Amino acid sequence: MYCETYINLGETYRKALPDNHPDRAITYSNIGDVHRLMDNYEKALSFHQKALNIQENVQCSPLECATTYINLGETYREMKDYSTALTYFEKGLEIREKKLPKNHLDLAVVYHNMAKLYLTRRKYSMAMKNIQQAVEIAQEKLPSTHPHLLEYKETIEKIRKKM
Fold it and tell me: What residue spans do the TPR repeats cover (predicted)?
């Protein structure tokens, strides 16, 4: 249902908006993320790249570009292309660190994504550094039972076991 909703929304935007409209980019990135969640990585990359092509050529919010970079990073991470994933995570993180407060939950998400990447690559000190930042933000901003905070704490335990 979720995927169908975004695909239908994409059809609506295709008919109503010009090809290079920033709202189209957001929709493309969202559709790409749905495809990633369904393990359709090639389609995910295609939609994320469409989004990025619009965002890099039209005046749009840097935070929207950051989200697309991070979505690309997560797709490449799941595809096990870790160096490309890290490049996109770093681009997205750089923008978010400039535009958001240091304790913003969107930063915690990127730190967690990077921690998972470093854990997989057996770079445990980098994984720990990133997950500690994610947990610190989440503990400040979220209730102790929030699923994101619990997931971050699970990741920190996985890293501790490997160190």
Answer: 25-58, 66-99, 108-141
Using alpha carbons, list the distances in angstroms from residue 50 to 39, 101, 140, 163: 18, 29, 36, 40
Contact (CB, 8 A) for 108 and 138: yes
Q: How far is CA 121 from CA 8, 53, 62, 75, 111, in A?
A: 38, 30, 29, 16, 15
DSSP string, 142-160: S-TT-HHHHHHHHHHHHHH
For the full predicted model, state whether its pTM sits above 0.90.
Answer: no
Half-sphere exposure of 117 (CA within 13 A, CB side): 27
Residue that the structure tokens 């970079």 belong to: 69
Gap between the Cα atoms of 92 and 60, Å rounded: 15
At 1-39, the pLDDT tens digits run 545 554 555 556 556 776 777 788 989 999 999 999 999
Q: Give domain limits for the chain.
A: 1-85, 100-162
Both tokens of 106, joined, read: 């969107």
CATH class for the domain made up of 1-85: mainly alpha
The one-character DSSP state at 17 is S
- Residue 17 to residue 53: CA distance in whole angstroms: 16
- Angle ∠(133,39,46) on CA atoms, nearest 5: 90
